[in-house]
Amino acid sequence: MVQGNQPDGAPATPLARSAWASKYRGATVEDLDPPPALSCKPTDPIMIALSNAYERDFTHLTVISENTRALLGYLNIPRLKESLKNGTVKDDDPVEKAMQKFRRKGHVYKVITMDTPLEELEDFFNGGVDGKEAQDFAVVTDDGRRFVLGVATKGDLEEFVKRRPA
Q: What is the pTM of this model?
């Protein structure tokens, strides 16, 4: 449920938030202490990307361009394991065969930075940019979206709430 525009023209604000929201108390993505992003290239073999993800216990890896380091997409490790299991891809296939590509044209992406409030991150996980599609993870970038700084997951948010004193 969303409240209408405020008299001063400020944007509408959500009326209903999760039980976690009161525990955030001004915390931002930086307070989650996300690990540095682990990226792979589209030409890397799947087995190398999978091994790197296992070593760091990551569920998502970003895929960047070899030349420009631009963010091209990501690997969802649980989905990748299923694809390997059912034979859709092989471990010596290149990452580009299994990666989820970011759709650039006609799509608006929510910029998540270290300064993004956790309430906003939770909203992103629950409804994405347009409120239509829940998200599993967020790519954390600098304000200019030039550098991938980390990846935050809904699990990271849940762990933060468990650690935070009441």
A: 0.72
